[in-house]
Design goal:
The chain is built from 17 helices and 35 strands. It is an alpha+beta fold. It has three domains: about 120 residues, Potassium Channel Kv1.1, Chain A (2-Layer Sandwich), CATH 3.30.710; about 100 residues, Serine Threonine Protein Phosphatase 5, Tetratricopeptide repeat; about 300 residues, Kelch-type beta propeller (Neuraminidase, 6 Propeller), CATH 2.120.10. The strands form ten sheets. The chain has a five-stranded antiparallel beta sheet with strand order 32-4-5-6-33, with no helix packed on it. A four-stranded antiparallel beta sheet has the order 7-8-11-12, with no helix packed on it. It has a four-stranded antiparallel beta sheet with strand order 13-14-15-16, with no helix packed on it. Helix 6 packs parallel to helix 8. It is globular and about 90 Å long. It starts with 10 loop residues before the first helix and ends with a strand.
Length: about 625
């Protein structure tokens, strides 16, 4: 009878061993090497250093003189960074912050500490923003860190209109400058921006950079410049430069007629958590009113839903909070165990990389919350309220995100605890509304002020700020007995009620109703499209299939009119939980609509399937 040995893994022993090594290091027991950097001594164990560093492994095992010495002087090494690396070698804990990470990366690169390099890379990629992206691009290029370089380059391309004014941009190498001005992915609406950036870089040091004039200009899309700009620019050049410019522009001719990515942007309604065929799965899509097309955005990671969303003035899209599914096993004595869906509230925070059509994780919020109201105010993102499992106190919490340092801080809590609220920003103040209450948060004082009450009380309403006024519309009215009454959100079954708040007068008034058809659910979403106040609305009769429309408000006439009826074959039934925001996206970076319209809308014989491009295609459900 054969026996098979069982291997038992004792994780406690591994932890204990690391703790003992740390104790030996702190008490300088059995140390066999002293590293000397900038006059500071670091007594260590060769075995520990060689385990984490290829540099030390080669030093101690090569048979060279250093392998027999008890004291080794290290040059070109930062003492503070070496201390962080030694601490990591003995504990597995790496202390990284914005002030030390770049020097730490440089030291880890010299000492060939791969784990520290990877952690620093991940940290830097996560911390890339408009303020540091140009500098990190040069840093990554210097150390041949391709992953960091590509992430930094995408941010430079995305923020090009602002970052080319930075000193770090003027310090770029000629290779990086040319790589940028030749990129198809620059987020610029006019080629004049690229020309101005290129000329600023050349003029920064005309003596040493005049040799690059022709090469740099060869990457401009001269046909995209206006004739006036071309003429003025050429006439203003020194005589000796004109022939060089002509040569450079001649070289650019093969690139004529190819627009930069930013020139292809379309303003779209971004629809978060649209219903799909799978009832447990939500989709993220966007609709272009201009092209009347639907595009698919990548869904948030981990089946995240019930998030808050915001689009900043710089067109950055963020989502925060929400729930993720958790599989739990429910035991039953009489029946087999089965999996049941459960959900966990999270504090996730993501930025949308529009060029890559993917969500990038940023520093999570301090509190987990579902459906928080997100707004951009005076340079910060605020996460307000939301529902969570933390009770009334947590529902009142408000936190603020600093995009430059990727950090959240708590601010004054809401005066009331609401499971649902809507927030807008006017004159750098945040107005939060729920039921018939309105509160205003003033960032400069950090306090909340109660404003005038509304005439009606409603939940699940939508709001938008437009020309010093707040338009509060749709939703479900709440009766005196606190019961929700479905029909109350219409007038005579043919319009949607609107209330308007005058910020200067602190006064609510009944506004012009939206002449939408009767609808059976509270799906009315206020949005601002092309600097016009609009609503994206679901127009249906009871038991009918979903139909959508966009209504626009005329401030002068104080009237709403139908701007666009959306074909039911363009947008399917989005459900009732979806939310809307508006941002500018690149159609070429998105997935097209999953449904391809047939050559003939209906087959002659009325069948549900027909042949298209030699394939049988089913008529989509509408």
């Amino acid at each position: 009878m054969s026996t098979q040995d069982e291997t038992q893994i004792n994780t406690e022993y591994a932890v204990s061993l690391l703790e003992q090594l740390k104790l030996f290091y702190e008490q300088q027991l059995l140390t066999d090497i002293v590293l000397i950097v900038e006059g500071t001594e670091f007594p260590c164990h060769k075995m520990v250093l060689a385990t984490c560093s290829s540099y030390f492994r080669a030093m101690f095992m090569s048979g060279l003189s250093e392998s027999k010495q008890t004291h080794v002087h290290l040059r070109n090494v930062d003492a503070a960074s070496l201390q962080i690396i030694i601490t990591y070698a003995y504990t597995g804990n790496l202390a990284i912050n914005e002030g030390t990470v770049e020097q730490l990366y440089e030291t880890a690169c010299f000492l060939q500490v791969d784990d520290v390099l990877q952690l620093c890379r991940e940290y830097l990629i996560k911390k890339i923003n408009a303020k540091n992206c140009v500098r990190l691009l040069s840093f990554a290029d210097l150390f041949s860190c391709e992953e960091l370089k590509q992430s930094a380059k995408r941010m430079v391309e995305h923020k090009f209109t602002t970052v080319y004014h930075q000193e770090a941009f003027m310090q770029l190498s000629s290779e990086l400058l040319i790589e940028l001005v030749s990129s198809d992915n620059l987020n610029v609406e006019k080629e004049e921006t690229v020309r101005e950036a290129a000329m600023s870089w050349l003029d920064y040091n005309t003596v040493s950079r005049s040799q690059y004039l022709s090469t740099v200009l060869s990457h401009l899309r001269i046909d995209a410049l206006s004739e006036v700009i071309q003429r003025e620019w050429f006439q203003g050049l020194p005589p000796n430069d004109k022939s060089v410019v002509v040569q450079g522009l001649y070289k650019s001719m093969p690139r004529f007629f190819k627009p930069r990515l930013g020139m292809t942007k379309e303003e779209m309604i971004i629809i978060i958590e649209a219903a799909s065929e799978n009832p447990s799965y939500c989709s993220t899509v966007c609709y272009s009113p201009q092209a009347e097309k639907v595009y698919k955005l990548s869904n948030p990671p981990a089946e995240l839903h019930k998030v808050g969303t915001v689009v900043t003035p710089d067109n950055d899209i963020y989502i925060a909070g929400g729930q993720v599914p958790v599989k739990t096993t429910k035991s039953n004595h009489s029946k087999p165990s089965k999996l049941q869906a459960a959900f966990r509230t999270v504090n996730c925070f993501y930025w949308f990389d529009a060029q890559q059509n993917t969500w990038i994780p940023k520093t999570p919020m301090l509190s987990a919350r579902t459906k928080p109201s997100l707004v951009w105010c005076d340079g910060y993102i605020y996460a307000i309220g939301g529902d969570n499992a933390g009770g009334e106190l947590n529902r009142r919490t408000v936190e603020r995100y600093d995009c430059e340092i990727d950090e959240w801080t708590m601010v004054s809590p809401l005066p009331c605890a609401w499971q649902w609220n809507v927030a807008v920003v006017v004159h750098d103040c945040i107005y939060v509304m729920a039921y018939n209450l309105t509160y205003c948060y003033v960032p400069r004082t950090g306090g909340w002020v109660e404003m005038a009450m509304r005439q009606t009380s409603r939940c699940f309403a939508s709001a938008a700020a437009f020309e010093n006024k707040i338009f509060y519309l749709g939703g479900l009215h709440i009766g005196n007995n606190s019961g929700i009454r479905l029909p109350s959100n219409t007038v005579d079954g043919s319009s949607v009620t609107v209330e308007v708040y005058d910020v200067n007068k602190n006064e609510w008034q009944v506004g012009a109703s939206i002449p939408a058809k009767r609808y059976s659910d509270p799906c009315v979403r206020a949005v601002v499209i092309s600097n016009s106040l609009c609503v994206f609305i679901r127009e249906t009769h009871m038991h009918e299939k979903a139909k959508y429309a966009i209504y626009q408000y005329n401030m002068d006439l104080n009237q709403w009119f139908l701007r666009q009826q959306i074909s039911e074959r363009v947008l399917w039934d989005l459900g009732k939980e979806f939310r809307c925001t508006v941002g500018k996206l690149y159609p070429s970076c998105l997935e097209g609509s999953p449904w391809k319209p047939p050559t003939h809308l209906f087959s002659p014989d009325g069948a549900d399937e027909f042949e298209l491009d030699r394939d049988m295609v089913a008529l989509p459900s509408v």
